[in-house]
Hints:
- The protein is of the alpha/beta class and about 230 residues long.
- The protein contains seven helices and nine strands.
- It has helices spanning about 5-25, 30-35, 55-60, 70-85, 120-135, 155-160, 195-205, and strands spanning about 45, 65-70, 90-95, 105-115, 135-145, 175-180, 185-190, 210-215, 225-230.
- Strands 3-2-1-4-5-9-8 form a seven-stranded mixed sheet, with helices on both faces. It has a two-stranded antiparallel ribbon with strand order 6-7.
- Helix 1 crosses helix 4 (about 70-85).
- The two termini are about 25 Å apart.
- The mean pLDDT is about 95.
Amino acid sequence: MNNKHFNKSEETWNKIAKSFDKxxxxxxxxxxxxxNDLTKDSTIADFGCGNGRxxxxxxxxCKKVYGIDISKKLLDILKLKLEKENLKNVTLIKSxxxxxxxxxxxxxxxxxxxxxxxxxxxxxxxxxxxxxxRTLKENKKAMISVxxxxxxxxxxxxxxxxxxxxxxxKEFGDIIINWDLDGLKIPxxxxxxxxxxxxxxxxxxxxxxxxxxxAKIVSxxxxxxFFAIVTK
Length: 232
């Protein structure tokens, strides 16, 4: 990830942190099931932990948790929640997700929920997935989720985009989605995935796909998220 994108991403998520926290209270059922299936002595990392809606269930279930996020303000929000819950088994790390400051083969599991798609450039996304593989122990499992490209609210946009020639700095699937709550209008970068591209990137990172599911979390017609369970 180049410094320009790194700095822009950090700035964006810091600006919307408080507003974002208001709308991200409830953990997804898919994640809770995955977390609850882990052994109590597990060490787990939450890549792109945000305000902690999935990290806190990890901390209540697992022995040791690392929370990694690019936004200091989101980590500050999460820190207050951990103090309120008296959860002392969590280490918070401010970092991008391209170079993870965790040792090789040290994690029993990783959850990487709705964050991979915020990284610009395919090479960087694959590098991030490779970092997940590096930190994960042999034969252990991780859950990764991304937004689907052809979900209800973006389907027509991408069908139209498909006929256009992409510029050198834009990939098919890239989109800017504004954060419009609380009087804010903050542009956020996303790369929305087709199922085939998601599978391709996981394989390029040398991750073995154990299961891949489509989910409708907000959409009524077409899936808006993919959830992959992977190992190394």
